[in-house]
């Protein structure tokens, strides 16, 4: 955390959190100076194996309580608190077809839903669409117990609006955006004005990432030799991934930080494309 950070000054800070099955991340924005002071990530070690990821109940609250014990000032009143849930179950519906009373039916068409899962929806105004998603009730209860007035949105909504904010009118041809949030990857096709494609896949190895990328491009009749690829997020597979991608893609770049903010030097330890959605949370209208 930046040395200018003060636990006694949280009333002038914004807190943005990303809650996931395997990790919790948060960043602090000094709203007076429009400067990010730091970002921290806590791994839930007991949830790193796929077979253990069905437990989202008391163990998640215990994990979150452990973070609050380590960082007690997170319970202090912040001027702004934003929370997103990093989950697998979400679906996009054009606004013309969306009905708030029918959101559970839209979701059930694509996913089986557990009894404890609650259904929410985010309105993506720039794209005139709704993203419907689930959050386990214990996660919602844990978040609201600590932050009573918080609204929980979905990580995919945050990613989509973050890309729109940073790339609208800056690009004039289609780009494919590859966002890694292990064990998930998001693929989005965006031309600076419209989003033509968005989907999320589960992967286990770098080869899976390349497979889904090339498969999607082929299905959309897009040439990997010509379409630019923008890399966002991080994962353990990232070290070997560039060599694999370079076999198929000719134009690869990494995402840049939002220049509407300044950033503490402590964030220079992170790749600029890491935590891309989280560091754009305060720019989104969600």
Average pLDDT figure: 90
* Cα-based radius of gyration, to the nearest Å: 19 Å
CATH class wording of the largest domain: Alpha Beta
Low-confidence stretches: 47-55
Q: Which strand-content bin applies to the residues?
A: 25-35%
Q: CATH architecture of the largest domain, please? A: 2-Layer Sandwich
> Could you give the order of strands across the largest sheet?
8-4-1-2-3-14
Write down the CATH topology of the largest domain.
Nucleotidyltransferase, domain 5
Tell me the structural class.
alpha/beta
Instruction: Give the count of structural domains.
Output: 2
Largest sheet: 6 strands, mixed
Overview of the molecule:
The protein has 286 residues and is an alpha/beta fold. The chain has two domains: 7-163 and 258-264, Nucleotidyltransferase, domain 5; 170-254, Nucleotidyltransferase, domain 5 (2-Layer Sandwich). It has six helices and 14 strands. A six-stranded mixed β-sheet has the order 8-4-1-2-3-14. A five-stranded mixed β-sheet has the order 11-10-9-12-13, with helices on both faces. β10 (184-190) and β11 (195-202) form a beta hairpin.
